[in-house]
Amino acid sequence: MIVLDKVNKYYGDYHALVDITERVDNNEVLVVCGPSGSGKSTLIRTLNRLEEIDAGRIEIDGRDIHAKNADVNALRAGIGFVFQSFNLFPHLTVLENCTLAPVRLKRATKLEARDYAMQLLERVGLAHKADAYPNALSGGQQQRVAIARALAMRPPIMLFDEPTSALDPEMVGEVLQVMRGLAGEGMTMVCVTHEMGFARDVADRIWFMAEGKILEKATPQEFFAHPQHPRAQQFLADRRRD
Amino acid sequence: MLELIDTYWLYFLVGQYPEGPLGGLVLTILLSGAALVLAMPLGLLLGIARVSPYRAISLPVAGLVQVVRAVPLLLVLFWVYFFLPAVTGVKTSQATTMLMVLVVFDSVYLAEIVAAGMRALPKGQLESARSLGLGYGAALRHVVLPQTLRHGLPSIVNQLVSTIKATSLGYIIGLSEVSFIATQINTLVFTRAVEVYLILALTYFILCFGLSRLAFLLERRLQRRVGQAS
Question: Which of B125, B130, B132, B136 would best serve as a mutation to test chain A binding (most A beta carbons within 10 A)?
Fold first, then answer.
């Protein structure tokens, strides 16, 4: 369970996150959407402390992520993070990308890590690319490997920061399909995404953000049928026109 | 020319050894090699320190880099050889002096190469390594540095080649490296300066060109593994 309590963040004078107080339950799939510059990415990056916060508190399963003495590495090992730009390690093969962290952090022996990574690659449909280098893969394939790499640490929570925004349209589907599969298995997920179809089908709840605030939180049914906030109505109208 | 080589090859190769100190081409190679072996880890550490998020670490290194870069190697050689013994009372040999100066210069230039490479690497590489739970050190060792060093290989080789050539400055403090030996030979035979210095030039060329080719082959092998796009 993720609990945010009066989280505030500034970039200089710019108030990037304003008094965010919310919670994400276990096994919940949360979609965060909103116009660009609304603070969605900043918010999700504070959840594994890729960004520091200036005030407030973020707890994951009761542990204060931003505590001075927090063991950041141990906390992060339990939170999978998928980036917009994939960020695979280009000097390692697909398989090595997936086994590096589990082996180095002594979560598994080399052999166990290999076996599990192969299972995960099988699952994202890329077992046949295990020995390829990331440069030989398409964007959609790279992002699926990135998901497998995050899953290799067996995290109970997965964070997705616009995972399909850097992809060609025809590759979006294959990545979303993997995410749907994870959601179906009860993974706790926070997804920053513009994919409204995914939000409608898969999300348990939606947060709509603008100007560093959560302006609306609703189930997908409510959000798409009867958006309350004028900014949300505008946002959805713009999406429909696309 | 052949007769010249026939007469002086041993002197050219090892100087007065074993009657006197080791010198000549072997000394040049040993000095360059030792300088590189010592400067590589030092340069790596300084480079990492240079991009450290802690100013207490990065600032002193930045200062050192600026100073060393702005002073000629020759001048530092003078200082260390003539001035340092006057202060410390310990006289260092020419070879040790040369080695110390080379290591300082090399490690500073290598540090700049390493630091530039680390800055050029997309931020996402460190971020994704850290988000998997790897610590800063592990992320550097397994993710950042392997890529930095691979991309920096041409610059690093450049530095190594410079090092080989810089050993010739030892001439000025009487270090009997290969250039010094060549002038000695020139004095002995007196009339054949062109040939003597041509042989010297060829020697340096073979050393440096060989090293560049070796690095080029290594680079190509790495590239083929990772795929064309990198």
Answer: B132
Helix (H, G, I), strand (E, B) or coil at B143: helix
| Mode of pairing for the β-strands spanning A188-192 and A55-60 | unpaired
Predicted confidence at residue A95, as pLDDT, reads 98
Tell me if A50 and B131 make a contact (CB, 8 A cut-off).
yes
Task: List phi, psi (to 5°) of B92.
Answer: -100, 150
Could you read off the pLDDT of B40-73 as tens digits, one per residue? 999 999 999 999 989 999 999 999 999 999 999 9
Contact A76 B130 (CB under 8 A): yes
Is residue B132 within 8 angstroms of chain A, CB to CB?
A: yes
> What is d(CA A72, CA A65) in angstroms, rounded to the nearest whole number?
7
The total of other beta-carbon atoms located within 10 Å of residue A86's CB is 23
Give the 3-state secondary structure of residue A193: coil
Question: Over the stretch A119-165, which tens digit does the pLDDT of each residue have?
Answer: 999 999 999 999 999 999 999 999 999 999 999 999 999 999 999 99
Q: How far apart are CA B103 and CA B31, in angstroms?
A: 10
The stretch A186-215 carries a mean pLDDT of 96
Residue contact A50–B227, C-beta within 8 A = no
Contact B138 A48 (CB under 8 A): no
Q: Are B178 and B27 in contact (CB under 8 A)?
A: yes
Distance CA A163, CA A157 (A): 15
CB-based contact, B226 to chain A, within 8 Å: yes
pTM of the model: 0.89
The pLDDT of residue B4: 85
Helices (H) and strands (E) in chain B, counts: 11, 0
| Cα–Cα distances in angstroms (integers) from residue B205 to residues A121, B33, B158, B169, B183, in the given order | 51, 16, 13, 17, 18
End-to-end CA distance of chain B: 47
